[in-house]
Amino acid sequence: MSKPPLLDLPGSARAYTLRTARGDFAVHEAGRAELGTALLVPGFTGSKEDFIGLLEPLAAAGHRVVAVDGRGQYQSPGPRDEAAYALDELAHDLLAQAAALRAEGPLHLVGHSFGGLVSRAAVLREPAAFTSLTLMSSGPAAITPDQQARTKLLIAALEMLREDMPAVWEAMRAQEPDAALDSPELTAFLRARWLGTVPEQLIATGRVLISEEDRVAELAEVDLPKLVLSGAVDYAWPLPLLDDMAQRLGARRQVIPGTAHSPNAEDPGATARALTEFWAAAAGDRPEPS
């Protein structure tokens, strides 16, 4: 899971509820859309807080930045129904969020990990809604076999103990070798986020991670500037897989040195620079989204 470098919002940012045609979503927002708007979509077990480190540098560069909790994720409500978290449903949610932002100028979409799969599905459904797509630490299809095995164990635990999420949390943390290094404040946040997420959301999205098909050829047909961004190592989708995906997409490829699966949290400064450079080029190549 991603671990935010900060837990408090910067003074220039605000937390509020984004109201859309498909329900309400908790968001963090910073900046003014001098150069455009960025919509940031978190991954499996994640939340909008994973992007806290990006808010100030992206806002300072002239962008309105909006990070969102998806349906049933941390502070966004969601039903106790696995069908509500099918990938297509989440893609429709994302399009509704984009519409509700009423962005003036370019609208850049950034999906981290599982959020990249949701973002891809949204772009395939309605490419004209966005100016660019960034897939951050998000690969072409299902996660690697070893990560599939770990995710299957988590899904099984959730299916058995979905009414006792604290027990699943304790078991999961016991398997994490670096958990003892987390500060008390970070540990409390991670636990609150876990308990705030609807178990059916985790079950359904975990199943997507272990079964998603390769849709790279389909996405390559979409005339949209694309960036494949990752850390220097990745356990969910190894770098050779991401390199190949970028080539197949005709996408820009960017590696953030010294980071792993969450460059947005591990080196937000370098990640923000990579994003703003890409967005500047993308906005010059594309008309504003309709």
Automatic annotation (TrEMBL):
Keyword annotations from UniProtKB, A to Z: Hydrolase
Pfam family, one: Abhydrolase_1
Segment forming the signal sequence: none
RNA-binding found in the keyword field: no
Keyword Magnesium attributed: no
Gene3D superfamilies xrefs: alpha/beta hydrolase (3.40.50.1820)
GO molecular function: hydrolase activity
InterPro entries: AB_hydrolase, AB_hydrolase_1, AB_hydrolase_fold
PANTHER family according to UniProt: AB HYDROLASE-1 DOMAIN-CONTAINING PROTEIN, HYDROLASE, ALPHA/BETA FOLD FAMILY PROTEIN
Protein name per Swiss-Prot or TrEMBL: Alpha/beta hydrolase
Organism: Streptomyces antimicrobicus
Taxonomic lineage: Bacteria, Bacillati, Actinomycetota, Actinomycetes, Kitasatosporales
